[in-house]
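Input chain follows. Return structure tokens only.
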Amino acid sequence: MTEPVRVLHIVGAMAPGGLENFIMNLYEHVDREAVQFDFAVHARKPGDYGDRIAELGGRIYELPRLTSHPVRNLRNLNELVRQNRYPVVVRHTANALITPQLLSARRAGAFTVCHSHSVDDPMKALHYAGRLIMKQAASDRMACSEQAGKWMYGKLPFTVIRNAIDIRRFSYDPAAESDIREEFSLQGAHIFGHVGNLVPVKNHAYLLQVFRVIAQKDPKAVLICVGEGEMRGAIEQQVKELQLEGRVILTGMRRDVAKFLSAMDVLLFPSIFEGIPVSLIEAQASSLPCIVSDAVSEEIRITDGLVSFLSIQEDPAIWAEQALALMEDDKKAEKTVRRVPQRENIANNGYDIDALAGWYLEYFTEKARSRKV
């Protein structure tokens, strides 16, 4: 039996999050007898995908952090690629600071792919410096959207790879909604939600200001934030200052996001910037109404009538007013009537994981055959 092509993915950490969920979706659906994924990470975290990766046949290697130990990071990565003879290395990233890693892997003999997952980054100076060697470092270039590609590569050509999902898994499920409402004792509540890591770019400070207005006007309103991250302490403090204790639920890291999307009535997404957030594709698959920051690309709107955009420069009361209006509209019909399946819309826009897994299989096997050892 022919050994599968082993592809090395370089990621900060493989804990549940937007780009990590995308990679795992792909890993779950690709033909693993033909292609296997291994991972080089800079950190291991409680609740990460390590156990599942091992079950699927993958391996995880921990490297020193590039920003803290650049020489060790690049040397260890080069040795890892050489020793395991990886034919393809994919670096998933929000900025071009990582181009030395791609260059190191390329010099070790791999076909290198940069995959852009964002449209901005706080480290702009280092990003633009890294872009200067992108052409030499990356054999090929991918991006989750047109904007993410232009941010990462400038005028260099790139391929847009949609953040595809398992559409059936995220379709609205009344039983899943019932499970979440029972778990958190939310029967009869109006659930406003957010899905995303607790990090500055997700803008939870603004989200809580919006929800404060909602809570003042709707005594049944609760806010569920699904995710974990560095801002948890600051968010908990703001909840206390706004006197929202008992009205805001921070779930921490969860792997049953689909259930939460079924339980939510309105999704609020006030990010400062984004690429193409996987959670918004999943929300649309669940037919969940979404109010989204206009800093997010309009490419994210792939269904009719589910996504509306507002500026985060607006008074939070404007967001609250629209969210409450959506809630009122939703109460006019049963959820099973309103939340109709969106498979055709989502698949036609290129977000079907089964189709993407087939494309990836051909892509990786072709690049593995054509590489120079």
